Each structure stands twice: as structure tokens, then as C-alpha cells.
């Protein structure tokens, strides 16, 4: 070939040139920076402004953080040690650590109880949140509410035990009657549970010292523990209620539909704080005069109502997003309403609504700080009340609020990261 | 001969109420109604019993009684001798004020952050997502309290403005930013100011009319009229002309330092400003996510198709991307406005006297009318949210895809 044009062409290359490395400006970090930081004058300006901003933050915060005092016993002592330098007074965190976490009234020799409850919470949540965890752990999950109640509020173990037996008895009764119809089964289960609770109530009421922990009244709960308790309890209670409300709102029975619509729209239309006012000053009027329902329980009732209305709307969105064919396919298989809902509709609708439910859960957990407005001492209430008002620590804003921001950020951010992960896990459509 | 006949319909039996789908729903609804009636009856009887024991009755007469407390930030005339109803009105206006201010500022910040999160500048993108994550994942109550603490700690006190070599200076001798709040010039309306304002409103309408006319001319004749400079001219010229012809009927009253505090001008308390600012930056983080999602929701093919038609980038944004993105952005945006309005009830934490602070706070505590106050409070917020939902429905119907 090469000699075909030997007479007409002066030179023909017959070998490939070796590959050259790209120019320095088109490779590696330089290329990345040119593309991502300095493409055009506007981007360069933005980069410089951002860098200046970061520089300001870092140079402002670093000496403050690095000079931090961890061992003083009051703000005055902190300032004395610092001697005019900028520096944080983190000793408020170390000194008031227990108050920030548990409130200022929880008996200090009993701190192991909420800590144990918290550790058990992680164990109990693992099989629910993480599909690969050993399934046997679900037993812990089932037992957890009763154990946690006993650990945190104390009293005799018989009370949660009776509650547990009631639930178990109700479940057995439901299973026995379920073959007749779902409604009959649910009714039988409810009756069985109520009977056991009433009977067991006499037993546990008469033996208050069997396996008893020191009882802690609800008003002694406080600190971040209170936020965690309110968040966990209200989210887990509001999920089933929210599912029922969503089904009710989608129902073809007009009366049930309108009851659900009015409830949901009313709750969603008012701020949580007015509902907390209701819990604080109004709700007591609606209970029998001799019933002494404590504030934490009233707050749990109202927050649960609040959260269930929002969760109902999220799940309604999931139900509406299901193709009609799913409902029709379930009908054509001969499944009745309860079976179709449990086996076909709900698993898919819940999967669609996971991001929304997590949003509601995060929002609810953040909203538990609002109880500080009705003078309960959760984390924010502790900071605003007993700590900032004390003579030792009056004026330590940044450290305390920074700590609160950090705690909430860690919890909420990990929840939302988890939901993104779960979404990817559950994504069964092929894209 | 047998003919086709309907299958014999079975006579109604009571068991059909449970087993027949045609009747079962009536049974369930009847049970639900019965349970609801029982529950309401039980609660109401408890309520009446409790009220009887406490010697109370339900009445709204307390609204007509003198309130007897002062409100430090009011939009309408109010003294401690005014009625509780008047105090509640002050609260309502204060709620609406902070909600309105907050919505405007949250939209501005949120849209900017949302667009910057899509920037091709890596550093800006990361900074903005850091902002969004931090503010979304921490309770708004904590932000309100932090902003309030920072506000009081960082800004100078009014006494720092005193003396010849004062530590703090007023901006253009008109604005003073102090830890107690902002002092701004206040317009004083003299006779004839109504005319100026009318002319100003008319010129705004004039701008829109001119722009319509320009568009119509473009579509009818293909002639492109200038819009920017004529709009600016219409905006300023008539109003300024009337203003000077009438001899300047609108003057500004500047805040002045008298003793240890400023007098005159408009005074925005630190509680209002920190609430406004905190609600804005918190809600802006959510709005930024909505804006980002809305822009990402527009198919890439749309901008490519527009580019292949020969549109310039700005026109692609204005005519193709934005109209489609807004359809996605606006519904969640409006529900964020609703959230902001509801969150403004946290004003009570910094002592800003909105409706929750007046009616749900001091009035409730002074008169002991818990049920009536809380019911009125809820009704107000319910009314606002229903109004906003109605607006949203109207909008959704207007922008719904007109499918064939």
C-alpha cells in the first residue's frame, strides 16, 4: 500500500503517532477547577465571594472554638480564665449535661433507665428500618413499647404486662374470628383486649410493688429525652391512625368520608401551638371531673392528632397515585375490601408515600420543641428556662443554642438520609 | 315457553345488613355516626359538668371589656383602655404583617438559593445545599430564639449613637439599626397626597396597559416596540410631576435620638424583626427545594427544542422553562406561605404580640376564658388557611394542563 503513491506523494505516514498527554489546563485538578469554579467571570465572582464568606466564618469561629473552656463552673469563671480573649464556654454543656438530656427533675440515680430505653429503642427499630437485620429482633420491637413505658415511668411491671397480655389476647381473638369477616375479627379482638385490660387493671392496681421501679411522674420528664419520647410515641401512634383516616377519606361512604375530611382539614388548618394551648388549658374540661390526666398525656394526644392528619394526607397521595388497575385487579381476584387493602393496596401506597411520611416525621420531631411554649421543660425549655435564667450561666447563648442545633440536626438529617436510602432499596421499577 | 326474567330478588333480611355489600355500607355509616354522636355527647356532658363545678359559663362578653394591657407594636390605635376585641384586632394585623413580610423575603431568598443550588459552580452548590440542610433540619423555634439572641447581642444599643464620636452611626441620618429594633423614616401624608398616590397607581396600571399594547402590536404587525425605557418613564415621570406641582405633599419624618432612645419615624421592634428574619430564612430553605425541584422537573428536551427553534437563552428561560416550572413550583410555594403564617404563631416565644400573644396569651390569662379564646384563635387560623387553599384551587385550575 505504502508504495502505491510513492511517485505522487512526497511523504505518507505509515505508523500511528503515540498518544500525547492532554494539555495541563485540560486535565486533573486544573480542568476541574476551570469547569467548576472559574468558568466565566460571573462564576469566578461567585467563587471568590463564597471563599471570602467561608474565610470569614472559619476565622471567626475557629479561635472561639479552639479557646473553648470545658471545666469552669460559671460564666464569670470562664471569662476569668479566658482573660479577654474570645473563646467559648463549653463548660455549660459539661456541667449541665444531665439537665440538657434528662431535664432537671428526673431522679439522677435513675438516669440508667432512659438510657437503657434509648439503647433498646435502637435495637427495636433495627428490624423495622433495616430489612437485613435478623428477623428475630422483631420480638424486641413487639415488646419494646411496654418495656420502655416501664423503664421511663417506673411503677410495677404488672401494668405494662397486663397491657401486653391484652394486646396478645386481642390478636388471638382476631385470628380466631377473622375467617368470618375482617370487621367481626377486629370487633372480637377489641372486646377481648378490653376485657383483659379491665380485669388485669384490678390485679395490677392491687399489687403496686411487684417488680416495681421508682415511679417517675410525667411532669418530671424533660430535656432532649422529652423531645425523643414525644417524637417516637406520636409518630408511631399517628401512623395507624393516619392510615385509617386516609382510607376513610377515600371511602365511598359519604358520612365516614366527611367525618375524616372535616377532621383532617381542621387539624391542618390550625397551627400546632393552638392545639398545644388546647392540651394545656382546654382539654381538661372535656374529661370527667375526677379524671386527672397529666399534661404529657394531653400533649401526646394533641400532637398525635396533629401528626395523623398530616400523615393521612401523605398516604392519601400514595393511594391516589396507585393506578386504578391495581384496585380492579384486586377486585377481580375476589378479594374483599380488607384483604385487598392489606395485601394489594397498602403495601404499594405506603411505599410511594415513604418520603412524605419521613418528612412529616422529621417535621413532627422538630415541632416537639413547641411544648416549651406551654412551659414544659424539653431541650429548648431547659435552655430558655432553668439554664439561661440561672446566675451562673446567664448569657451563654451560642454554646447552648449551638448544642441544640447540633442535636436536632444529627437526628433529623440522619432520618432524611435514611429515607433516601430506603427509597433506593424499595425502587423496584427498572429505569 | 320460558322467557327471560330477572332472577328472583331475595326478600330483605336483617343479615343482609352485614353480609350484603349493598346494605353493609349503611350499617357501617350508622355505627360510625352513632359512635361519633356518643363521643361528642360524652365530651359535651363532661364539659357542661366541669363548667358547672367551676361556676363558669361560655360567653364572649369579655371581648367588649377593657383589655388593660399595653401592646408595644401596633398598626392601629390602641391603648390599654381599649377592648379585648381591639387587642385581638391588633394581634390579627400583627400576624398578617409578619406573615406578609416573611412571605416576600422568604420567596426572594428561596428563589435565589434554589437557582444557585443548580449553578455549575461547585463551591456555591455545596454552600447552598449546606444552608438548606442546616435550616431544614433544625426546629424553627430554635432559629427564632437564636436570631433574637444574635440580634440583641450584635447590634448596638441606642445609647451607642450618642455623643460626637459615637460607636454607632445612623445610615444616611435616616435609618438606625439598634438592638432594640430598627428605626425608619416615616412618610407624613399632607393634603393632596391622595392625588399623588392615585397618579402612582394609575401609572402602574399604565405600564401594564403599555406592555399589552406592545405585545399586541408585535403579534398584529410584527413591529417590536421598546418596553424597558417607556416603562421606567411611565413609572417615575407622572408621579414626580404631580408631586412637585402640588408642592411635595408627602414628607418623611426621620427618627431622632432624644435622650437614651430614638423618637419619631417608624419603629420596628427587635421581636418583629427577628421573627420576620428567622421565619424567612427557615421557610426559604424549603422554598429553595421546591424551586429546584420545579426547574429540574422541566424536561431537558423542552429547552433543546426551544434552542432548535432559534430562541435565545433568556427567551428560552422566559417563554419555555419558567411557565412550565412555575406550574410545579407554585402549589408547594403557597403551602409554604401557609406554613409560614402558621409558624408565625411562635411569635409568643420572643414576645411579639401577634394574635397568639394577645388573644391566646394575655387576654386568655387575664380573663380566664380559655375555651372561648382558643376557639376564636383556631377559627382565625382556619379562616386564613381555607382562604389560601381556595386561592390555590383557583390557581391550580387556571394552570392545569389543557389536555385534548
Mean pLDDT figure of chain B: 82
User: Which range best describes the helical content of chain B: under 10%, 10-25%, 25-40%, 40-55%, 55-70% or over 70%?
Assistant: 55-70%
Mean pLDDT across all amino acids of chain A: 84
Strand line-up of the largest beta sheet of chain B: 1-2-7
How many whole angstroms does the radius of gyration of chain A measure?
30 Å
* Global shape of chain B: extended
Which secondary-structure class do the elements of chain B indicate?
mainly alpha
Second rung of CATH, namely the architecture of the largest domain in chain B: Orthogonal Bundle
* Total strand segments of chain B: 7
The N- to C-terminal Cα distance of chain B equals 52 Å
Q: Could you tell me the strand content of chain A as a percent range? A: under 5%
Largest sheet of chain B: 3 strands, antiparallel
Largest interface: A-B, 56 and 54 residues
**What's the name of the CATH homologous superfamily of the largest domain in chain B?**
MetI-like
The arrangement of helices and strands of chain B along the chain is HHHHHEEEHHEEEEHHHHH
What is the third-level CATH name, the topology of the largest domain in chain A?
MetI-like fold
Low-confidence stretches of chain B: none
What does this structure look like?
The complex is a heterodimer of chains A (431) and B (404). Chain A is mainly alpha-helical and 431 residues long. In chain A, 68% of the residues lie in helices and 0% in strands. Chain A folds into 3 domains: 1-66, no CATH class; 73-106 and 219-431, MetI-like fold, CATH 1.10.3720; 155-212. In chain A, helix 13 crosses helix 15. The mean pLDDT of chain A is 84. With 404 residues, chain B is mainly α. Chain B folds into 2 domains: 84-175 and 271-399, MetI-like fold, CATH 1.10.3720.10; 186-253, no CATH class. Chain B is built from 12 helices and 7 strands. In chain B, helix 3 runs antiparallel to helix 11 and helix 9 (300-308) packs antiparallel against helix 10 (313-343). The radius of gyration of chain B is 30 Å and the shape is extended. The two termini of chain B are 52 Å apart. In chain B, 28% of the residues are buried. Chains A and B meet through helix 2, helix 11, helix 12, helix 15 and helix 17 of A and helix 2, helix 4, helix 5, helix 11 and helix 12 of B.
Amino acid at each position: 500500500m505504502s508504495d502505491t503513491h510513492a511517485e505522487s506523494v512526497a511523504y505518507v505516514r505509515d505508523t500511528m503517532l503515540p498518544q500525547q498527554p492532554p494539555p495541563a489546563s485540560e486535565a486533573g485538578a486544573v480542568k476541574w477547577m476551570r469547569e467548576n469554579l472559574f468558568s466565566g467571570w460571573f462564576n469566578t465572582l461567585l467563587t471568590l465571594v463564597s471563599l471570602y464568606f467561608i474565610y470569614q466564618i472559619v476565622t471567626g469561629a475557629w479561635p472561639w472554638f479552639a479557646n473553648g473552656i470545658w471545666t469552669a463552673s460559671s460564666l464569670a469563671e470562664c471569662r476569668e480564665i479566658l482573660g479577654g480573649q474570645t473563646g467559648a464556654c463549653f463548660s455549660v454543656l459539661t456541667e449541665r449535661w444531665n439537665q440538657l438530656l434528662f431535664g432537671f427533675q428526673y431522679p439522677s440515680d435513675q438516669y440508667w433507665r432512659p438510657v437503657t430505653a434509648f439503647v433498646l429503642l435502637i435495637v427495636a427499630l433495627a428490624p423495622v428500618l433495616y430489612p437485613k437485620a435478623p428477623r428475630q429482633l422483631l420480638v424486641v420491637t413487639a415488646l419494646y413499647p411496654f418495656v420502655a413505658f416501664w423503664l421511663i415511668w417506673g411503677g410495677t411491671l404488672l401494668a405494662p404486662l397486663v397491657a401486653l397480655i391484652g394486646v396478645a389476647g386481642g390478636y388471638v381473638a382476631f385470628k380466631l374470628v377473622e375467617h368470618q369477616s375482617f370487621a367481626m375479627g377486629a370487633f372480637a379482638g377489641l372486646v377481648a383486649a378490653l376485657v383483659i385490660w379491665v380485669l388485669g387493671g384490678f390485679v395490677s392496681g392491687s399489687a403496686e410493688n411487684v417488680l416495681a421501679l421508682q415511679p417517675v411522674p410525667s411532669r418530671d420528664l424533660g430535656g432532649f429525652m422529652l423531645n425523643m419520647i414525644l417524637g417516637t410515641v406520636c409518630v408511631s401512634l399517628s401512623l395507624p391512625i393516619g392510615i385509617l383516616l386516609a382510607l376513610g377519606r377515600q371511602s365511598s361512604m359519604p358520612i365516614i368520608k366527611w367525618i375524616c375530611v372535616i377532621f383532617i382539614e381542621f387539624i391542618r388548618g390550625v397551627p400546632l401551638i393552638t392545639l398545644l394551648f388546647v392540651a394545656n388549658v382546654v382539654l381538661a374540661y372535656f374529661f370527667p371531673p375526677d379524671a386527672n390526666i397529666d399534661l404529657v398525656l394531653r400533649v401526646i394526644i394533641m400532637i398525635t392528632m396533629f401528626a395523623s392528619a398530616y400523615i393521612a394526607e401523605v398516604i392519601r397521595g400514595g393511594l391516589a397515585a396507585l393506578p386504578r388497575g391495581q384496585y380492579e385487579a384486586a377486585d377481580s381476584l375476589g378479594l374483599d375490601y380488607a384483604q385487598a387493602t392489606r395485601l394489594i393496596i397498602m403495601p404499594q401506597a405506603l411505599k410511594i408515600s415513604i418520603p412524605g411520611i419521613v418528612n412529616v416525621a422529621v417535621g413532627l420531631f422538630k415541632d416537639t420543641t413547641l411544648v416549651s411554649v406551654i412551659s414544659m421543660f424539653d431541650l429548648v425549655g431547659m435552655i430558655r428556662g432553668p439554664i439561661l435564667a440561672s446566675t451562673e450561666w446567664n448569657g451563654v447563648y451560642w454554646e447552648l443554642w449551638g448544642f441544640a442545633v447540633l442535636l436536632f440536626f444529627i437526628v433529623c438529617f440522619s432520618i432524611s438520609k435514611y429515607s433516601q436510602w430506603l427509597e433506593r432499596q424499595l425502587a423496584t421499577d427498572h429505569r | 315457553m320460558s322467557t327471560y326474567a330477572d332472577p328472583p330478588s331475595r326478600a330483605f333480611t336483617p343479615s343482609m345488613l352485614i353480609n350484603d355489600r349493598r346494605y353493609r355500607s349503611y350499617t357501617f355509616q350508622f355505627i360510625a355516626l352513632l359512635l361519633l354522636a356518643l363521643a361528642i355527647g360524652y365530651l359535651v356532658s363532661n364539659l357542661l359538668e366541669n363548667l358547672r363545678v367551676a361556676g363558669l359559663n361560655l360567653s364572649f362578653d369579655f371581648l367588649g371589656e377593657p383589655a388593660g394591657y399595653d401592646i408595644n407594636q401596633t398598626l392601629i390605635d390602641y391603648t390599654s383602655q381599649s377592648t379585648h376585641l381591639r387587642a385581638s384586632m391588633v394581634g390579627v394585623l400583627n400576624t398578617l404583617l409578619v406573615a406578609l413580610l416573611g412571605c416576600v423575603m422568604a420567596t426572594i431568598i428561596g428563589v435565589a438559593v434554589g437557582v444557585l443550588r443548580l449553578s455549575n459552580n461547585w463551591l456555591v452548590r455545596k454552600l447552598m445545599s449546606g444552608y438548606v440542610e442546616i435550616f431544614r433540619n433544625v426546629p424553627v423555634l430554635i432559629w427564632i430564639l437564636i436570631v433574637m439572641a444574635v440580634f440583641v447581642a450584635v447590634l448596638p444599643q441606642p445609647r451607642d449613637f450618642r455623643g460626637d464620636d459615637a460607636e454607632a452611626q445612623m445610615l444616611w441620618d435616616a435609618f438606625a439599626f439598634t438592638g432594640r429594633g430598627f428605626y425608619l423614616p416615616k412618610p407624613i401624608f399632607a393634603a393632596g397626597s391622595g392625588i399623588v398616590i392615585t397618579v402612582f397607581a394609575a401609572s402602574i396600571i399604565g405600564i401594564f396597559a403599555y406592555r399589552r399594547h406592545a405585545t399586541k402590536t408585535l403579534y398584529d404587525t410584527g413591529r417590536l416596540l421598546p418596553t424597558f425605557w417607556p416603562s421606567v418613564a411611565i413609572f417615575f415621570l407622572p408621579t414626580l410631576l404631580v408631586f412637585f406641582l402640588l408642592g411635595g405633599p408627602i414628607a418623611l419624618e426621620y427618627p431622632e435620638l432624644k435622650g437614651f432612645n430614638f423618637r419619631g419615624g417608624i419603629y420596628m421592634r427587635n421581636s418583629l424583626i427577628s421573627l420576620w428574619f428567622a421565619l424567612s430564612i427557615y421557610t426559604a430553605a424549603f422554598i429553595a427545594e421546591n424551586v429546584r425541584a420545579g426547574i429540574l422537573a422541566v424536561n431537558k428536551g423542552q429547552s433543546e427544542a426551544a434552542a432548535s427553534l432559534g430562541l435565545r437563552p433568556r427567551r428560552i428561560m422566559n417563554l419555555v422553562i419558567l411557565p412550565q416550572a412555575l406550574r410545579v413550583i407554585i402549589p408547594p410555594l403557597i403551602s409554604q406561605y401557609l406554613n409560614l403564617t402558621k409558624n408565625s404563631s411562635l411569635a409568643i416565644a420572643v414576645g411579639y404580640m401577634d394574635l397568639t400573644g394577645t388573644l391566646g396569651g394575655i387576654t386568655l390569662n387575664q380573663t380566664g376564658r380559655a375555651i372561648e379564646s382558643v376557639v376564636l384563635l383556631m377559627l382565625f387560623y382556619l379562616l386564613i388557611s381555607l382562604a389560601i387553599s381556595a386561592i390555590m384551587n383557583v390557581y391550580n385550575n387556571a394552570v392545569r394542563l389543557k389536555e385534548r
